[in-house]
Amino acid sequence: MAVAQQSLDLASHHYENFPVASFFLPHHLREPIALIYSFARQADDFADEGDLTIEQRLNLLSEFRDELDLLQAYIKPKTAFFVTLGKMIRDRKLPIAPFYDLLDAFSQDVTKTRYADYEDVLDYCTRSANPIGRLLLHLYQQATFENIQYSDHICSALQLINFLQDIAIDFKKNEGKQRVYLCQDELMAFGISEQTIRAYVNATQATDDHWHQFMHFNLRRTHALLNMGKPLGKILKGRIGFEMRMIIAGGERIIHKISAVNGDVFNHRPTLNCLDWAIVFSKALLKL
Fold first, then answer.
1. What number of helices (H) and strands (E) belong to the chain?
2. Sign of the alpha-carbon torsion through 145, 250, 255, 11
3. What are 240-288's pLDDT values in tens digits?
4. What is the DSSP letter of 115?
5. Terminal CA-to-CA distance of the chain, rounded, Å?
6. Widest CA span of the chain, in angstroms?
7. What tens digit of pLDDT does each residue of 30-57 get?
8. Contact, 261 vs 216, CB < 8 A?
9. H or E stretch at 122
């Protein structure tokens, strides 16, 4: 099976709370977007999935970085995936720096498990999420300064939404050392300890008012950040604009679902069902 088709299959079969290379996009954009997604998905899985040691995870990410080095030096990569990715990057005149930024973020996932404050978390988002939006804007030939600013807001907000919905999942990562993307200073301010989070994860304690207030604070801030990027959905025209509005509406829907359960993502991790997707589609269609 061709690399591009494998990437399309990965994009269509891996669950996400937003569309990836969907049939709403023009056909000529679907394969390039799927290749970008496949690069990010594979590298993210190196950092997160399976029972690999920290050293093994970093080695796999280093191999991806070596392949990027070959592309940057105009030397043929070692793997079929990077040969295909490199041709797409050249043909579409994409910058290569965002791919390095993604690998830097995923390597950080392996080695860093705590974030001091909101600025620390946003710094991670600039490398873990924002590069994807920037690559897509270059692919759409819409990478103006204003559009990049809007895109960064959207991508960072989507990353924060993932953190909020996956608190329990992340807590079990990094070989039992727990990964916590929540701001340490804010947890302290709301009177929440990691022992409390562990009790929520292990279902030995129900979430309390401190947790509910903490989560609603985070949801309001994340929603505000998402709204700061929302104009991009109307700036981008045609089917790419519709896809962007779908992505934004999907993020809004997840925020709504987390809020509806008072932030208890331990017992009610949000996923989008058919009704949710109908709402997302309608909002994108009506440009709401």
1. 15, 0
2. negative
3. 999 999 999 999 999 999 999 999 999 999 999 999 999 999 999 988 7
4. B
5. 40
6. 57
7. 899 999 999 999 999 998 887 888 899 9
8. no
9. helix 118-128
